[in-house]
UniProtKB/TrEMBL annotation, chains A, B:
Protein name as catalogued: D-lactate dehydrogenase (cytochrome)
Cofactor(s) it depends on: FAD
Pfam families hit by this protein: FAD-oxidase_C (PF02913), FAD_binding_4 (PF01565)
Keywords: FAD, Flavoprotein, Oxidoreductase, Transit peptide
InterPro entries listed in its UniProt record: FAD-bd_oxidored_4_C (IPR004113), FAD-bd_PCMH (IPR016166), FAD-bd_PCMH-like_sf (IPR036318), FAD-bd_PCMH_sub2 (IPR016169), FAD-linked_Oxase-like_C (IPR016164), Oxid_FAD_bind_N (IPR006094), Vanillyl_alc_oxidase_C-sub2 (IPR016171)
Domain FAD-binding PCMH-type: 49-226
Family: Belongs to the FAD-binding oxidoreductase/transferase type 4 family.
Amino acid sequence: MALVAAAQHRLTPAATDAAIAALKQLLGERLSTAQPVRDQHGRDESWALPSPPDAVVFPDSTEEVAEIVKICAAHGLPVIPYGAGTSLEGHVTALQGGVTIDLMQMNQILKVNAEDLDVVVQPGVRRKQLNEYLRDTGLFFPIDPGADASLGGMVSTRASGTNAVRYGTMRENVLALTVVMADGRIIRTSKRAKKSAAGYDLTRLFIGSEGTLGIITEITLKLYGIPEAMAAATCSFDTLEGAVNTVIQTIQAGIPVARIELLDDVQADAINKYSKLDLPVQNMLMLEFHGTEAGVAEQAEMVQALASDHGGQNFQWATKAEDRARMWEARHAAAYACKALRKGCEIMATDVCVPISRLADCIIETKDDVVKTGLVAPLVGHVGDGNFHLSVVIDRNNPKEVETVEAFSERLVHRALRMDGTCTGEHGIGSGKMKYLTAEHGEAVSVMRAIKKALDPDNLMNPGKIFSL
Amino acid sequence: MALVAAAQHRLTPAATDAAIAALKQLLGERLSTAQPVRDQHGRDESWALPSPPDAVVFPDSTEEVAEIVKICAAHGLPVIPYGAGTSLEGHVTALQGGVTIDLMQMNQILKVNAEDLDVVVQPGVRRKQLNEYLRDTGLFFPIDPGADASLGGMVSTRASGTNAVRYGTMRENVLALTVVMADGRIIRTSKRAKKSAAGYDLTRLFIGSEGTLGIITEITLKLYGIPEAMAAATCSFDTLEGAVNTVIQTIQAGIPVARIELLDDVQADAINKYSKLDLPVQNMLMLEFHGTEAGVAEQAEMVQALASDHGGQNFQWATKAEDRARMWEARHAAAYACKALRKGCEIMATDVCVPISRLADCIIETKDDVVKTGLVAPLVGHVGDGNFHLSVVIDRNNPKEVETVEAFSERLVHRALRMDGTCTGEHGIGSGKMKYLTAEHGEAVSVMRAIKKALDPDNLMNPGKIFSL
């Protein structure tokens, strides 16, 4: 059953054709209207229904993106930026038709400033590509959302992931951006100094703006020295409370863990089946420590002591790079492992984040809800930040099941908001969570809308995402 | 000679009186038009000429601030927020007349969420007051700009200071804000979760907006556990290069120093005279290390080895709290020590920040310029971030000297910009650095202006700061 979202085209077919013809003149073969190309660009990895654009363009420079945006602005045609397509809330669907700008040909690493611990990249560089490139410099870029996302996409969604607990999110790790505005102006948001008090923080405004304010065409990222020592560990718990309370105390004690991930028993079982591992089918923490040899040992001992106090068992170590890699591969395969649980089913990924003092409450209430509702929904979490996901396995062809899952998801969001949390810790709003934005931000949404209208008065930049206008 | 800035009043005296009468009805004795009160609120600690407001009001709640702003909006009267008055670029002068909102009666610490490592405060709380209040909780708020500033002011100017190298600036340490917008709407920018991908980052937009977009009336700040161990050290160098290169290598090695401050020989001499110390009259680094006992020792050994490689001498320790306190008091008194160098003179504080790879170049070129120009200008710097200040001692009554200093300051800014740095690392733009904003940000300033116009269409919020409209 090939479902698509009902697009509400802004232009008539003739007006769209005229705009595309103008773009074709600029781009030649780097514009495609082939159905498979459009289909591929009309969806991400989310639960959102696909909605293909009218055309896809493949620019190779900031200036070319500016020309494209100017042509689209002149014709009133919407513009949607596209990276690796790994977003999770329907960020890239062409809900009002328009042109998708595929930025993956802009995949150059422009300059490593090793002394300054920063790097300038184009938006189509993927995070694994960047770290492979950096390996010989002794530096790395830590942010790791799991998927091998493009860095432009990671900026746009304010991505984070497993080691944000130590290194922060994209919010903390971008120094400067080059952005093409809705009218084709090119701006640079900041110089390369590590801090500045000069004017409004446009860098942070564009981070997480999901392509609704401009197209990001160049990114200056912070880098870090590869730690002298790294060690990973797993630890199992009979109860979820034990695992979560270990996390809470680790954070409160200020132990600078690099990663502290929770997997529940359902998830551990799914990973065993998918990744052919033999994890204990229990609630589990996966940890990583970065530092000097002595520092890593000290951190690990402190966490192990806290875990023991809360019923932690089977503290197992992985110090070899290959063992660590296998463990984190298994963690990153969690979503695919969930999908494999029921043939022909899809995953609806949830993503709330609460103050850590409420994390145990939020997880336990949610697990009760899963059991009562009868869902298959493994839980994983970047719990050091209070952020967790359920991968709800769902048969989209069963309307009753869809209804049940959507009601569950809504209860989860309101539970998190009630606990002073957010409806999305890291996936973003896209089209999937628009309905929760006002519940979370209230009157502040009117300020967001005013900014959107000021910077994109014709609502051409990724329209229908974050909020409707 | 009592210089004041020539205010360009927006309203006629009669219209101003009508607005003030309406405010008086709301506030009674918490509104003052007494000349000394107006004078006191018409200046900060900067070089900018004072410009008193027409009245000063002292609200005690967010709702009252909203009422004040609504009355001012209805009358077209400008509104200037005021905290401790320690800003350094003329942020609080009433250049177009209007009402100053003194927020120092809103000085309550509303809620410590110790488990979540955060605290909710009113904007008039000062940083020392907060840390005294927190002492028994084992937590602290690290950001330390030197002056005992109000937290509202620190948010508004994106302040940082000595230990930003470890803990970040205000940009990284605010979780959420309550803001009164130009039309009196009250918004809250974020929930209390540690991270979120839900909509535009309004928190960061208001941080550093210097009162030009709204009045901050409540702040949720991140807190940190007081480290198990702290140690401070000083080290002297014959050459500036030796000191600066020690800093650069410390940062590049990823050693998590909590503070790493540079003072040149001129500054060391000034501090000796003012604070009655016997620091060696040489270029000096002042360092602080935070961590476990073992971690602090490890960090300190690594830095000491780097310093020795660059000619560092007299590595001296201060592990007792009182010795550390005395050392940092002396550092914080640096500006006053400079002022004491020449009777009847004032200080013009500069504040550039460059990528750390350019720090030695920038400092050395600047010191050459000081010598050539014949200025008395001690240098201090938060050099771990690439940020440094010169306190230029200046006789305002000597027009030739003023001209010389202003030309020097302009050369310094352009030198920093040429090195991909910023015209202000932490003091802000205020009125003092408006002329450099476009040199630094180019076309991006038009985006800042568009946001300002969207959120404050009548330009009533601290007009004449950051940019003219």
